[in-house]
Design brief:
The protein is an all-beta fold and 216 residues long. It folds into two domains: 21-101, Immunoglobulin-like; 105-176, Immunoglobulin-like, CATH 2.60.40. It has strands spanning 2-4, 10-12, 25-27, 32-34, 36-37, 43-46, 49-51, 58-61, 72-75, 78-85, 91-98, 100-101, 105-107, 112-114, 122-125, 128-130, 136-140, 149-152, 155-162, 168-176, 186-189, 200-203. The strands form nine sheets. The chain has a three-stranded antiparallel sheet with strand order 4-6-9, with no helix packed on it. A three-stranded antiparallel sheet has the order 8-10-11, with no helix packed on it. Strands 14-15-18 form a three-stranded antiparallel sheet, with no helix packed on it.
């Protein structure tokens, strides 16, 4: 630049360059999104970087003042909008979606319950866990660690299944009833028969019962 005054004096400066202004830029090259597992609000967004504009920057997610950092932790799945504002008031935005890994489920279509009887203990079988294997099974109150149970006495049984993501799903209670023994009741007519008199014998017993032959 050259400046000349009214006396024809001249002064000049060395050349200078006006650089183009670069606004705020959001870079997602190294962004890592961790999905939420089984409705536990344990998702996260990390690895975003910001450049350009006039540092320093302020961050705002979803117009929620609680979300005011560039990285987010312990968040649920859903839609997220990041707004970055520099000191000059310039704004850049980013829209993204955080997914979810749903929890496992227990399918009882093939459930079979065998009630205990006076001759045998009960059992529970046929339940199936679906979702994020591998699975850890825990029954209460007996702390069994298999999905099928055998040799069960009467009681109330509940199953907890923990999958490979740490999600837990429950099933039950399943009630096994106390077996009801037979009630033996017989009548004869006449009540006091004579020798060689025909006697009518009537079995009025109730309940499930077994007949055991004694003697020859």
């Amino acid at each position: 630049m050259v400046v000349t005054d009214i006396n024809a004096c001249v002064v000049s400066s060395t050349p200078f360059q006006i650089l183009p202004f670069t606004g705020v830029s959001i870079d997602t090259t190294f962004m890592i999104k961790t999905k939420e597992n089984c409705n536990l609000s344990n998702g996260s967004i990390a690895g975003i970087s910001v450049s350009g504009g006039t540092p320093t920057y302020t961050y705002l997610w979803n117009n929620n003042s609680s979300y005011n950092t560039l990285n987010l932790n312990n968040i649920p799945s859903g839609n997220y909008i990041l707004q970055v504002t520099d000191q000059a008031g310039c704004i850049a935005s980013l829209n993204l979606v955080l997914g979810e890994n749903p929890g496992s489920t227990i399918n009882d279509v093939n459930l079979q319950i065998v009630q205990p009887s006076c001759l045998a203990l009960g059992s529970i079988s046929g339940l199936q866990a679906n979702g994020n294997g591998s699975y850890v099974y825990n029954w209460s109150p007996n702390n069994a660690n298999t999905i099928d149970l055998n040799n069960l006495s009467a009681g109330s049984y509940s199953l907890n299944v923990t999958d490979g993501l740490g999600c837990t799903v429950s099933y039950g209670p399943i009630v096994l009833n106390q077996p009801v023994g037979p009630n033996a009741d017989f009548s004869v007519n006449p009540a006091d028969p004579d020798v060689n008199q025909l006697v009518n014998f009537t079995n009025t017993s109730t309940g499930k019962h077994c007949l055991t032959r004694m003697g020859n």
